[in-house]
Amino acid sequence: MKLCKYYLMNFCSKEDKYTFMHGGFLCKYYHTGMKCYSDVNCRFSHAKLEKNKKKKLLKVYMVNKNIDLI
């Protein structure tokens, strides 16, 4: 499922009736140890990850630096 571009702009009026995702994507900045400048207003998840999931995320990020995780 793809992320709703209107959700990111805080402009989606369809919410649950829409086929695109409205949350659950990880914040690549927060979860890779960088500063997330959106902080509490970030539209991406800052939820704590299990160690194995965080390790996988970091591995993917380090191998594919030029590919967006979002």
TrEMBL record:
Keywords attached to this entry: Metal-binding, Repeat, Zinc, Zinc-finger
Entry superkingdom: Eukaryota
GO MF, one example: RNA binding
SUPFAM superfamilies xrefs: CCCH zinc finger
Zinc finger (C3H1-type): 1-25, 26-49
UniProt GO cellular component terms: nucleus
Single Gene Ontology BP annotation: negative regulation of DNA-templated transcription
Key word Zinc present: yes
InterPro entries, A to Z: Su(sable)-like (IPR045124), Znf_CCCH (IPR000571), Znf_CCCH_sf (IPR036855)
Domain C3H1-type: 1-25, 26-49
Record-given protein name: C3H1-type domain-containing protein
Protein source organism: Aphis gossypii
